[in-house]
C-alpha cells in the first residue's frame, strides 16, 4: 500500500500499522519456519543415506517421469540452474541416477532414475512419511489433506 494511501486512511491497516503485528500473524514468516522445520525433519530421516531432501525430491520427480532434460529440472524442482549439476552429482555417484547426452541434441543432458534410485525411494519412503507425520502431528487427518491440497494449489499457481 502506498504511503499516501496509508496517510489518508490509517484504519485500513489497523490503528498502529502493519509493523505492530506479531510474527504469528505473518504468513510468509510462518511458511518459512515451517519449511525450515520440514527440511530438518526430512534431512534427519535421510541422514543415514548421506543424501538430503533436495536429492530425495530429485529422485521422487525422476521416479514419476521417464527422464528429464537437465535444464528442465531447475524449473520443475525450483532450483537455480547453476545448482542442478551439483544436485545430480551425489545421487549419480551412488548409482541412483543416470546422466547422459540427449539422443536428439548431444549438447543437452538427460537425467533418469535408475532401478537402484527407485529402490532407495522405496527404502526411505517410510522414514520421510514419519517426518511428515511429525511435522503435521498437531493436525487432524482431514486438516492434513486440506493443507496438502492448499500447498499444491499455491505451488502450481506460483512456483512453476
What does this structure look like?
This protein is mostly helical. The protein has helices spanning 3-8, 27-46, 53-63, 70-77, 84-93, 115-135, 141-158; strands at 68-69, 97-102, 105-113. Strands 1-3-2 form a 3-stranded antiparallel β-sheet. β2 (97-102) and β3 (105-113) form a beta hairpin.
Quick tags:
mainly alpha; 3 strands; 7 helices; 11% strand; 3-stranded antiparallel beta sheet
Work out the strand percent: 5-15%
Helix content: 55-70%
As residue ranges, the low-confidence spans are none
Oligomer: single chain
Total of helices: 7
Distance between the termini: 27 Å
Q: Determine Rg (CA atoms, Å).
A: 21 Å
Kindly report the spatial arrangement of strands forming the biggest sheet: 1-3-2
The pLDDT mean sits at 85
Structural class: mainly alpha
Q: What does the main sheet amount to?
A: 3 strands, antiparallel
Order of helices and strands: HHHEHHEEHH
How many individual β-strands?
3
Q: How would the global form be characterised?
A: globular
Amino acid at each position: 500500500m502506498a504511503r499516501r494511501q496509508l496517510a489518508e486512511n490509517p484504519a485500513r491497516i489497523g490503528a498502529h500499522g502493519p509493523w505492530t503485528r506479531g510474527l504469528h500473524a505473518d504468513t510468509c514468516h510462518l511458511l518459512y519456519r515451517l519449511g525450515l522445520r520440514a527440511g530438518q525433519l526430512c534431512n534427519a530421516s535421510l541422514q543415514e543415506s548421506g543424501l538430503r531432501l533436495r536429492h530425495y525430491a530429485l529422485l521422487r520427480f525422476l521416479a514419476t517421469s521417464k527422464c528429464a532434460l537437465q535444464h528442465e529440472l531447475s524449473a520443475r524442482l525450483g532450483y537455480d540452474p547453476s545448482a542442478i549439476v551439483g544436485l545430480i552429482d551425489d545421487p549419480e555417484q551412488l548409482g541412483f541416477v543416470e546422466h547422459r547426452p540427449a539422443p536428439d541434441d548431444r549438447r543437452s543432458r538427460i537425467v533418469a532414475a535408475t532401478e537402484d534410485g527407485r529402490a532407495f525411494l522405496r527404502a526411505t519412503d517410510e522414514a520421510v512419511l514419519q517426518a511428515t507425520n511429525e511435522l503435521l502431528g498437531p493436525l487432524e487427518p482431514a486438516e492434513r489433506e486440506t493443507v496438502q491440497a492448499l500447498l499444491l494449489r499455491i505451488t502450481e499457481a506460483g512456483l512453476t
